[in-house]
Amino acid sequence: MEMTASRRRDFDIAGAHIDDAYPTRGDGPERWPERWIDRADPVVWSDWTPDAPITQDQAAGFARDGFLVLHNLFAPREVEALVEAAAQLRAEGRDRAGDDVVTEPGSDAVRTIFRLEDHDALMARLARDRRLAGVAQFLLGDAVYIHQSRLNYKPGFSGKEFYWHSDFETWHAEDGMPRMRAVSASLLLTDNRAQNGALMLMPGSHRTFVSCVGATPEDNHKSSLKAQTVGTPSPESLTKLAEAHGITDAEGPAGTLILFDCNTMHGSNGNITPFPRSNAFFVYNAVSNAVTEPFAAATPRPEWLARRGTPEPLEVATGALA
User: Fold this and answer.
1) Residue 68 and residue 282: Cα distance in Å, rounded?
2) What is the pTM for the complete model shown?
3) CATH classification of the domain holding 72
4) Deepest of 85, 136, 202, 302, by most Cβ within 10 A of its Cβ?
5) Distance of alpha carbon 179 from alpha carbon 39, whole angstroms
6) How many C-beta atoms surround the C-beta of residue 43 within 10 A?
């Protein structure tokens, strides 16, 4: 493993010259060794003012740690309505039987439903809510659109782990997201605890991009959505990151909101408790950071995994959900 500044690659995409500040995924360790690249982009793209949707301390915490856990943003009736909507979506998940419904490895239990805002009106309203989209606009300093959305389930006794990864590595390599100007918002729809597979994050890891080895297989998403192997750091890198930054469990009751930077190293353990874990997940990308052609894949992932084309900025909504 090398720990160096970026060795940039250049691309000509659709007639435009693209400077790849975060090269990743070569043909093998000999040709493309794993290495660490210093982040070249801001974390918080806006200057804080009193009318910002988060406090100055919260903005500073996000810049420092690469994530933020917010409590008590939603009224109990709002949380109840969202939990009911999620339960209905999962109950209907097998009947939907499209590419955007992913089951657990080795079973037909629903693991993930993508294009969440297209499947449910309340979830579409949640995606535009100021408490999510408004904060994303502030953090990214731009109008935003939904790059990806999904409803994640980790059923009791059988929910599988999500291995350590940086989302940006995949979005850059396979979707063509140029820069680190995206943020994820995960709204907990069940109590999330360390015991039932709550999200784990390495605070401060967002300032280092781990360039991974191995070429991207054709249709990699068909296997990576169940168990990711390509685009994950080596145990050596993960050990050094954990030693440097530690690991935080993002715990909280239903209604807790977790915001984390696109490059924050994260993962979650399997769930062998009786208590399921669920969350609604929205990825906000800056309109100015719209995806191009993939930087390390022959073809882009499908539209239900990464919205393509000219992005339409979200109209941020205020007021109660229910």
Assistant:
1) 15
2) 0.90
3) 2.60.120.620
4) 136
5) 10
6) 21
